[in-house]
Amino acid sequence: MTFLQIVTTRWMLMISPWLILSIGVALGTLALPAARRLLAGSLILVGAIGWYGIFSHKFYAAPHWIEPWDQVAREAAQVAGNGGIVIGNNPSFFFYPTYFTPSTSPLRKAHFAGVLPESAHARDVYTPQQWIDAGSPTSATVAVFDGLSFGVPGPSRDEIRAALSARCKIAGEEDLVRDTGAKWKQEYQPTTGQRVWRIRVVTYGCAAP
Predict the structure, then answer these.
(1) Nearest CA to 101 among 143, 162, 148, 64?
(2) How far is it, in rounded angstroms, from Cα 195 to Cα 185?
(3) Bridge-partner residues for 85, per DSSP?
(4) I want to staple 203 with a disulfide (CB 3.0 to 4.6 A). Which of 11, 63, 172, 175 is the partner?
């Protein structure tokens, strides 16, 4: 799986029943009591390390579970509410602004009408591709909420930042959620684009269009 660059939590979940089954068979058939105790102890140790990582919020295999998208989305909603432009690239990010930003659909009102950015739309809230398709609009404030995501079509974060840097000035940068395992992921899964900080928020100040 490492050779094929497909070592992700979803794939590991698929093979875990077979791993547990093989360990269970070994525990039931080993004749040497010492070997059985050693194998059982190893399994307990691995499980304890995993649960310690979960409760400590430091050693998640999938750190997106602890990414503060609720907090980040509230910042985005404030930017959009003040007339700024918001660009995001992560599905988890768009889940929260669905409820924090006013919809452009007159039919929605207080009823659920879909999730940003595809089945519902909010004024001045874009994906990178939607921003390009809209003519790359700017405002006094443009905030780019760059989260680690996989397989998202459209321009990359570097292309968006280059386009904005040519027209605007960076007013602030903020990095959130440090991934302590990023070095190992970059070594063994280089194609996944892992990085040290899971979320980067870059705010631009732009002249009037």
Answers:
(1) 143
(2) 8
(3) 142
(4) 172
pLDDT tens, position by position, 21-60:
888 888 888 888 888 888 888 888 988 887 887 777 665 6
Distance CA 172, CA 140 (A): 14
The structure's pTM equals 0.69
Above 90 in pLDDT, residue 92? no
What does the block give as tokens for 27? 């525990």
ω into residue 117 within 30 of 0, thus cis?
yes
CA pair distance 146, 76, nearest whole angstrom: 12
CB 124 within 8 A of CB 80: yes
Handedness of CA 70, 72, 76, 79 (dihedral sign): positive
Amino acid at position 120, single letter: A
Report the SS3 class of residue 203.
strand
Structure tokens at 184: 């190992």
Contact call for residues 206 and 145 (beta carbons, < 8 A): no
Between CA 186 and CA 19 the distance in angstroms is 26
HSE-up (13 A, CA, CB side) for residue 79: 28
141 and 204 in contact (C-beta within 8 Å)?
yes
